[in-house]
Amino acid sequence: MATSSGSGTGQARRTPQQADTNASTTSNADASAPATGASGAQSSSATAEPSATPAPPRRRHRPAPLSPLQDYQSDDALNAPALAPTSPGTTPVRSPRQPVSPSPWTQRTGFATQAFPPPRASATATATARTPTVPASVFAVPGIQHFTRESWAERKVALITGITGQDGSYLTELLLDKGYQVHGIIRRSSSFNTSRLHHLFSEERVERLALHYGDLTDSTNLVHIISQVQPSEVYNLGAQSHVKVSFEMAEYTADVDGTGALRLLDAIRTCGLDHLVKFYQASTSELYGQAAACPQDESTPFHPRSPYGVAKLYAYWITVNYRESYGIFASNGILFNHESPRRGRTFVTRKISRAVAEISLGRQECMVMGNLDALRDWGHARDYVEGMWRVLQHTTPDDFVLASGESHTVREFIESAFGVIGRQLTWSGEGVHEVGTDDAGRVVVRVDARYFRPAEVDRLQGDAGKARRLLGWSPSVGFAELVREMVQADVASARDLIEDLN
């Protein structure tokens, strides 16, 4: 045991430069070690070999995480030798033609992972080996460096989040009519929610429409989609847009509606397209909430009254911040309420039009509502998506209010809807005890406190003067025409359903 201890102490570690010059000295030390015994082991630490410099002990290390662009080499490096020159003591750097771990991605793109030297290498060698030639965008189309924002826009490639919603479907139709290639992001779910796009699948222009699975909560997925699509315009319409639901799912609403906009903007920057892409953020009149001024325009202070409004407020300001900080063509469209027959069934206007249709056909007796006196500025969604497109065609990025300039109560919407089927309402009672009866004396409207918001927004009315002056935009469908179209569409749909059941 003493011999083993002496041998371990007398044998010193050698650097590669000392391996040849100190070979004989080390051999003599090893030969004399067994004769020293246990006492020699203690004295050897005090009397060190002058020719052997002890090296620091080896330590396990974890490589630093790589940035999204450090994993790739540019096309200019494809002709590099298989092993690039390195400094002594460093690991050779493989060229892109020699991938460290082949994968379908590297085989398809020609890019390969950079093999970095160990952390104990010299600072100069490490800096040399860790400086890959990174293009402006590793996913870029050929000649991307020669594009300007104007020439890039001529490609007419649009990416839409929330494409299966009311606004997304109307915007898709508009862009296809204008010759765009349209890409949409849809969430993977147990049931398909593409009914608003089905009519497009039977047309020739469907060849210019593509759908991609994705989610605003998945930043990696967004980077992948943008890198593949290479859009010239991005419309962020996706959101958890139910105000009442946002009180019950506040964290999810913030993640999708607020941070989702940030992820999308960051994905554009990650792909190196921030100087080319035009970005539209769908803001909302709920930003104003309990605003003191009426009507509200771009200069009216915000005072949101729901988690939905607060999340959208973050999305609004992060869009402004990226515009000012990075020069991205990023604009906000502050859209007041806009409806259509494609409006979701759980929204108040569609809830009214469907109930009126069912009552007219004798399939429902009464509708149950919340606050009947809330004032809203309602317009047609088809007009408003044209406003979205005009926002991105403006010469400079900016923020615009899109509104009809008129406000109506929920009570007025109900009365107008029943007027479409030839019935007039009479109101009686107050508060939650208020009811609406038709000409025959039947109660067709009741109030339920469960449908009130925890923090109500009493009046919203927009001033779209800036959009009229700079964009040439104005709504073409009035309030009465909007209500009539929605009710007639739901009556026809309800009749078709009866025929299908029969």
Automatic annotation (TrEMBL):
<dbReference type="GO" id="GO:0042351">
    <property type="term" value="P:'de novo' GDP-L-fucose biosynthetic process"/>
</dbReference>
<dbReference type="GO" id="GO:0008446">
    <property type="term" value="F:GDP-mannose 4,6-dehydratase activity"/>
</dbReference>
<feature type="compositionally biased region" description="Polar residues">
    <location>
        <begin position="1"/>
        <end position="18"/>
    </location>
</feature>
<feature type="compositionally biased region" description="Low complexity">
    <location>
        <begin position="92"/>
        <end position="104"/>
    </location>
</feature>
<dbReference type="Pfam" id="PF16363">
    <property type="entry name" value="GDP_Man_Dehyd"/>
</dbReference>
<comment type="similarity">
    <text>Belongs to the NAD(P)-dependent epimerase/dehydratase family. GDP-mannose 4,6-dehydratase subfamily.</text>
</comment>
<feature type="domain" description="NAD(P)-binding">
    <location>
        <begin position="159"/>
        <end position="486"/>
    </location>
</feature>
<dbReference type="InterPro" id="IPR016040">
    <property type="entry name" value="NAD(P)-bd_dom"/>
</dbReference>
<feature type="compositionally biased region" description="Low complexity">
    <location>
        <begin position="19"/>
        <end position="52"/>
    </location>
</feature>
<feature type="region of interest" description="Disordered">
    <location>
        <begin position="1"/>
        <end position="130"/>
    </location>
</feature>
<keyword id="KW-0456">Lyase</keyword>
<feature type="compositionally biased region" description="Low complexity">
    <location>
        <begin position="121"/>
        <end position="130"/>
    </location>
</feature>
<protein>
    <recommendedName>
        <fullName>GDP-mannose 4,6-dehydratase</fullName>
        <ecNumber>4.2.1.47</ecNumber>
    </recommendedName>
</protein>
<dbReference type="InterPro" id="IPR006368">
    <property type="entry name" value="GDP_Man_deHydtase"/>
</dbReference>
<dbReference type="InterPro" id="IPR036291">
    <property type="entry name" value="NAD(P)-bd_dom_sf"/>
</dbReference>
